[in-house]
Amino acid sequence: MNTTAERDALYDRLIVERARAPLYAGRLSAPDVQGDGRNPLCGDKTHLDIVLNGHHIQDIRHNTRGCAICAAAADLMAEHVRGNTVAQALAVSDRFRAMLVGSPSLPVVEAQPVPLGALEVFAPLQSHKARIRCAELPWIALKEAFSHVDG
Amino acid sequence: MNTTAERDALYDRLIVERARAPLYAGRLSAPDVQGDGRNPLCGDKTHLDIVLNGHHIQDIRHNTRGCAICAAAADLMAEHVRGNTVAQALAVSDRFRAMLVGSPSLPVVEAQPVPLGALEVFAPLQSHKARIRCAELPWIALKEAFSHVDG
Amino acid sequence: MSTHTSTTHAHAQLDVQAIRQQFPILGEKVHDRPLVFLDSAASAQKPNAVIDSMASTMRHQYANIHRGLHWMSERTTEAYEGVRDLVADFLNAPSREEIVFTRNSTEAINLVAHSFGALLKPGQAVLISQMEHHANLVPWQMLRDRAGIDLRVAPITDDGDLDMDAYTALLADGKVALVSMTHMSNVLGTITPAKQIADIAHAAGALVLFDGSQSVVHHKTDVQELGADFYTFTGHKLYGPTGIGVLWARRDLLEQMPPFLGGGDMISTVTFERSTWANIPHKFEAGTPAIVETIGLGAAIDWVSKIGFDAIAAHEAELTAHALTRLATVPGLSIVGHPRVRGGVVSFTMADVHPHDIATLLDRNGIAIRAGHHCAEPLMRRLGLSATARASFGIYTQKEEIDVLADTLVRIRDFFV
Amino acid sequence: MSTHTSTTHAHAQLDVQAIRQQFPILGEKVHDRPLVFLDSAASAQKPNAVIDSMASTMRHQYANIHRGLHWMSERTTEAYEGVRDLVADFLNAPSREEIVFTRNSTEAINLVAHSFGALLKPGQAVLISQMEHHANLVPWQMLRDRAGIDLRVAPITDDGDLDMDAYTALLADGKVALVSMTHMSNVLGTITPAKQIADIAHAAGALVLFDGSQSVVHHKTDVQELGADFYTFTGHKLYGPTGIGVLWARRDLLEQMPPFLGGGDMISTVTFERSTWANIPHKFEAGTPAIVETIGLGAAIDWVSKIGFDAIAAHEAELTAHALTRLATVPGLSIVGHPRVRGGVVSFTMADVHPHDIATLLDRNGIAIRAGHHCAEPLMRRLGLSATARASFGIYTQKEEIDVLADTLVRIRDFFV
Ligand SMILES: Cc1ncc(COP(=O)(O)O)c(C=O)c1O
Ligand SMILES: Cc1ncc(COP(=O)(O)O)c(C=O)c1O
């Protein structure tokens, strides 16, 4: 589907692949914390299982039913935050959100710039505001999981 | 007030005079029937006292508080229907209404044309629809008065 | 599944090109592609006739209505009240006083739930169907919770038709005071057998309201022939303005119902102690109405009437048949709903591609469709789906646009599989 | 009587000619005379900026909002929601989520009477004033009759000001839950001391709603500075479209209040058994809103803001002062209401000439004013009148038009006496 694909930086190959064949899908047998996200508007759902090691995210798996944006966002989030401290993960979350909404309040020079890496494939959502919540859903679930954990 | 008067066939001299100095204002001491009209929108009010002689309107007086159109309509109505039979008066009422609303359903050739005489000064109300009810109020009171009388 | 419509003169032909010329927006580009607008069931685009009538009212002849004695006010009142005649005619309502202007269909149904609902007693019931838009569900839930009435739901068949036996059975105990049902589903396209629904309701002592939001757009509506007691529709789906809708109800019902909103224009007299109400329909129109929008609705009705529902229905039946044929060739695509009689709305899903991804990818190609629960969550649950993609057709839709849709869907599917 | 306004920069000057150029309707003739439009308090005329923004939305960028994933829908949603920001700014509301779009002021007040009213208990009271428009009286009467609350009426002085002592006394027993009062009388022109009214209400444990239908047009409104809890206004008096109004309310109040109308867009989830509500403000906006009208309201607010309330208030104060001076010279004319602070609305009567005759005769001369009870019957009764004539002024009003009014009134009076 050349024309459509070319026209559509939004559906980066990476997003489509991770939606189809996620690397971090599944459940963990003994998670320390769990989180859920649900968007009643479109039926998107995600569940997170997380194993902590001190402040660090030792392992993370997601169980996602939803659109490609949501599914890929969950998988790429899991990949990105694995090994992070909780505080680092939450900082990524803020940075990710700022990228999506194109926030002008984003500090231009950050003391400790938080790299987004592969998560930058979601940047084109800026012009599809109605889909931003799809990419955010896993991050909402992550925040929920950490809501009882000190950073 | 030349310009205004000239421009304003609606406020015929006759209307203004009858509003200011009505000939049929007042009450009758022993009316056979009475009628009331009231327009809450503008506070116009009229009360009719009528003495009948068989089917004929022997005497009629009105007590009107309202705008010039309403006051003059009451006075000219009283003048017009005095001596009429009830049936004749009601026929005039219909004819008057048809004139005001410019009814296209008015029969073009009437078997017994009902002359309106001086009441025709109200014809320009056709283009001031919001004022038609002012001229109609006395006729509504007349209908009420006759509602228990056989024509 | 047939694509039957009530048209009798199939030879009535639409000049779609000439019609498209009258919709400036159809010349716009989206993501550098010509706009292919297949979302008319959400809201239709507006012809110049409507846009110009609104602009010209504001430019040349505007003032507040009803209470003014001056020329601008009298002319604007005439224009506004003239639309009441037009709407009465459009629905073949017995009288203009039975036409109440509202913001939209939603407000019209809420008005009935509030004012007719005030006449209901605990233990009485309202009966809706499984395929209602939230607009014809939530107001009745709110009434149920407020007034202790019962809310019943008539099931649909797997094809997406009302289950007539179950419907009849739900009326059997004589407790249903009102059947409130869609005249056309905004998800399945189903055109419900309104006359039959009304007859069965009446036989059981129930009144009937039809939500005509979708259906008035596609065929001629005759509330007397249908045997309706209430009927609602919304201007913006009928090529008219936003902010204006219509409730039609039988005179005796409107007369019994207490008012809905209080304020100017709906009163006869007011004292601090008590107020008395104006005659119908004014009793139900409080405050300054959507004057310019009502006039715009009049222009829309004029415009649609001039084209004629014979031609419109024939055109839309052809489009719908074409869409069903073409979409059947897209790998992995399933049509949602196979009703006996349908209007120009087609819902579908695609294996392995979420409806939201379909919608976004179509949009990148300039094609506007809708995806989601379409304000009919309980219906989605009945269908076992969380969302569908929906293409819907209007007067200005061209067969070629449906071809573009089908071709693009094939490419989207390739992309994902 | 002073014609004080809150303007501080009296030097801010309006170029009235340039402004009039932007209102095509002001070039119209009525009965062969140039239109002299002195009825803006009933509804203002619309500048090109508003007309064009609505027409251009419908021509170039329109679709239903919120639920759409396609470009037209997203852009229209942005435009619609952008107006919420504008309105929040216009009223200096603490947050955009506190802005609810309604059809008009009347619906906004009804929404509060319904949804805030649902939180009141029998024995609690709502306090209004003697000079309320029916829109701020009838909804409370209906609530009283429905919910068993008490409705109290604060008297006005003979000059047409709120009687502050009586007002304070009516709050003394602590039973008043809500004071609902006009911020400017549409009959007397009175601008009420809102800040003081709010302080006294709050001290007595009552909340306060201001009906800003008339006042937002004439001066800058700051709901935080006023200490308001609810505030309402209507688009069509603010040079904006019909069919769109605004309720502002404090977030915590909106959050506590149950929804008003049920339907699409106001829900979070729906099953046949129960529904849950969307967050504020959407909880209060059921169904397809007046999308194009909201965008038009945004254009009106932009337009008015660019001119600036300093200049507007100064211009209208000058016009009002001029009107009071010139009308004083008309034989037999009495001004109705001599409030301490007033906006650009002047009611009057003439000995021996009924207000309706005045209005019709002025109209024959091209001059549009209003005559009647102005949807304030109880106020008329308080004043011992059945009707008044009312001239009202806007941004586009010229001193010369007031002169034409006064001269024509003299001739009308001559005609009758
Ligand atoms: C003081 C006041 N309140 C309320 C209203 C009602 O406004 P609307 O008819 O736009 O709801 C008006 C205008 O008519 C008014 O002047
Ligand atoms: C079947 C049906 N009913 C009701 C509605 C509600 O219409 P509106 O949002 O204009 O009130 C719609 C459209 O959204 C609909 O499709």
TrEMBL record, chains A, B:
Name assigned to this protein: Nitrogen fixation NifU-like protein
Gene3D superfamilies assigned: 3.90.1010.10
GO function term, MF aspect, one: iron ion binding
Pfam families: NifU_N
InterPro entries linked: NIF_FeS_clus_asmbl_NifU_N (IPR002871)
Transmembrane segments: none
Domain called NIF system FeS cluster assembly NifU N-terminal: residue spans: 11-133
An annotated GO BP: iron-sulfur cluster assembly
Domain of life of the native organism: Bacteria
From TrEMBL, chains C, D:
Metal-binding as UniProt keyword: no
Residue intervals of the Aminotransferase class V domain: 36-405
Cofactor: pyridoxal 5'-phosphate
Molecular function terms from GO: cysteine desulfurase activity; lyase activity; pyridoxal phosphate binding
InterPro entries: Aminotrans_V_dom, Cys_dSase_SufS, PyrdxlP-dep_Trfase, PyrdxlP-dep_Trfase_major, PyrdxlP-dep_Trfase_small
This enzyme's EC code(s): 2.8.1.7
Catalytic activity: (sulfur carrier)-H + L-cysteine = (sulfur carrier)-SH + L-alanine
Keywords for this protein: Lyase, Pyridoxal phosphate, Transferase
SUPFAM superfamilies for this protein: PLP-dependent transferases
A Pfam short name: Aminotran_5
Top-level EC class as recorded in UniProt: transferase
A single BP term in Gene Ontology: cysteine metabolic process
Domain of life: Bacteria
Family named by the database record: Belongs to the class-V pyridoxal-phosphate-dependent aminotransferase family. Csd subfamily.
Protein name: cysteine desulfurase
Protein species of origin: Acetobacter lovaniensis
Lineage: Bacteria, Pseudomonadati, Pseudomonadota, Alphaproteobacteria, Acetobacterales
